[in-house]
Automatic annotation (TrEMBL):
InterPro entries to which the protein is assigned, alphabetical: MeTrfase_TrmA_AS, NA-bd_OB-fold, SAM-dependent_MTases_sf, TRAM_dom, U5_MeTrfase_fam
Organism lineage string: Bacteria, Bacillati, Bacillota, Bacilli, Bacillales
Matches recorded under Pfam families: TRAM, tRNA_U5-meth_tr
Keywords: 4Fe-4S, Iron, Iron-sulfur, Metal-binding, Methyltransferase, S-adenosyl-L-methionine, Transferase
Full protein name: RNA methyltransferase
Length: 471
């Protein structure tokens, strides 16, 4: 569900008195972008979301969904076009839904992403945003072919094997053959994998019937190393003629260093199941960020845009303000990327993650670099932090990089109980960031700096690094 931006209570109250009907055409002035990349306009103070509309445009919108709190519309006519509107270069941009902003000049998207964060803070916090500085968004020099991992649903269409993303608001798979934001190696591997599956007549999963074998092709490439890993997510454990399939992959895709299988027999939208099987090659691939190398297993979390990750982590390091004497907690640590980035400035780093495979990778990565001042544990920060404090180990800096749902409430309470001097919040969702910041603000922390980073060009997503200092 879209999350409408509420300018104030009065505007919302007035909007409820306006009745709109599906199919009705209304004039709209687009004021800004919403958190999903859609244009936001107002009709008699009722907020209206219009996918594809840009700030500054005057349009006629046709109502597609009429709600009490907000309305959705599609563009019927553009009366005044934005100077920032461009022709999307992707031929299936309007079908795929993977990107939301290819019709907007890149520099303009960076300004709008800064504004998306401002909107979230205005809506969810009591901070005076006129005094609170949000830095300009750090963008990419070349914002194309930047994603190091693809997770594409497999289906059959007209007898052909296709792999792609679900179309917007549907479970119809849109075939992706040359995605302009995916690394070219992942595009190539997916194209060849589709042909192999078709040539060998391998059973393809049918979501509606919950039958068939191959559900998802997951491909990850090491930008710096060139290593490639393929994970076949299957509905069942047994792969008929498995050896033939493996040999064909080795023959046609010699660049694949690691071939894995993940079994997910559940009726679910989640990609991975619990069991992962090694089919061929190495069990992990290696990637580098700067001078630091990482071993990545099939399910390990790793940032999807390595180029921007270096910039993001440099901002996190700057935010941590380490002098060499600090004890640091890397919550949601994954394979230990942020902790390793901070290693040379910290006295000790401790991290935790609920995925055991990630912790195993994190320990290997720390050992490989000769760091003996690292501790990684399986579990949650709210579980481990109180234990460590009870043992006399108290962190000076806590770094959090949570999923889109934000920090667990128990973790936020734990942080305010432990009272580290500084919290560095790496966020991928401005709304949950703002809510969590407001909680920490009411418990004695002040916001020092907010730095947006564009990790996913041409999408509405925006990551950021926020520094909170204990008052």
């Amino acid at each position: 569900m879209k999350q409408p931006y509420k300018r104030n209570t009065k505007a919302q109250g007035d909007s409820q008195s306006v009745e709109l009907n599906v199919g009705q055409k209304i004039p709209l002035s687009i004021k800004r972008l919403g958190i999903n990349g859609e244009g936001v306009g107002y009709f008699k103070r009722k907020v209206v979301f219009v996918p594809g509309a840009l700030p500054g445009e005057e349009i006629v919108g046709e109502v597609t969904k009429a709600g009490a709190r907000f309305t959705e519309a599609k563009i019927s006519k553009i009366r005044k076009k934005s100077k920032e509107r461009i022709e999307p270069p992707c031929p299936i941009y309007d079908q795929c839904g993977g990107c939301q902003l290819q019709h907007m000049e890149y520099q303009a998207t960076l300004v709008s992403k800064q504004d998306i964060i401002r909107q979230a803070f205005e809506r969810h916090t009591k901070l005076n945003m006129e005094k609170q500085v949000i830095q300009p968004t750090i963008g990419m020099e070349d914002p194309w072919y930047y994603r190091n991992k693809s997770q594409l649903q497999v289906a059959k269409k007209g007898g052909r094997v296709i792999a792609g993303l679900y179309a917007m608001n549907s479970h119809k798979v849109i075939d992706l053959s040359a995605c302009m934001v995916q690394h070219k190696a992942t595009n190539k591997v997916t194209r060849v994998m589709k042909q192999i599956l078709a040539d060998l007549n391998v059973s393809i999963y049918d979501e509606r019937k919950h039958k068939g074998l191959i559900r998802t092709i997951v491909t990850r490439v090491g930008f710096e190393t060139g290593h490639v890993q393929v994970v076949l997510v299957t509905n069942e454990k047994e792969i008929p003629r498995q050896n033939v399939l493996i040999e064909e992959i080795k023959k046609r895709l010699p660049e694949v260093n690691s071939l894995m299988q993940n079994i997910n027999g559940n009726k679910t939208s989640l990609i991975f199941g619990e069991e992962t099987v090694h089919l061929d090659g190495e069990e992990v691939i290696e990637e580098k960020l700067g001078d630091i190398s990482f071993e990545l297993s099939a399910r390990a979390f790793f940032q999807l845009n390595p180029t921007q990750t270096v910039k993001l982590y440099n901002e996190a390091k700057r935010a941590a303000k380490l002098t060499g004497t600090e004890k640091v907690v890397d919550a949601y640590c994954g394979v230990g990327t942020i902790g390793l980035w901070l290693a040379d400035g910290a006295e000790e780093v401790r991290g935790m993650d609920v995925i055991e495979a990630s912790i195993i990778d994190a320990r290997v990565n720390a050992d490989k670099h000769g760091y003996d001042h690292f501790t990684y544990e399986v579990g949650t920060a709210e579980e481990w932090l109180p234990k460590w404090v009870k043992e006399g180990w108290k962190p000076d800096v806590v770094v959090v990089d949570p999923p889109r749902t934000g920090c667990d409430e128990t973790l936020l309470r734990t942080i305010t109980d432990v009272k580290p001097k500084r919290v560095v919040y790496v966020s991928c969702n401005p709304s949950t960031l703002a809510k969590d910041v407001e909680y920490l603000r009411t418990k004695g922390y002040k916001v020092d700096n907010i730095q947006p980073v564009d990790m996913f060009p041409w999408t509405a997503q925006v990551e950021s690094v926020t520094v909170l200092e204990l008052k």
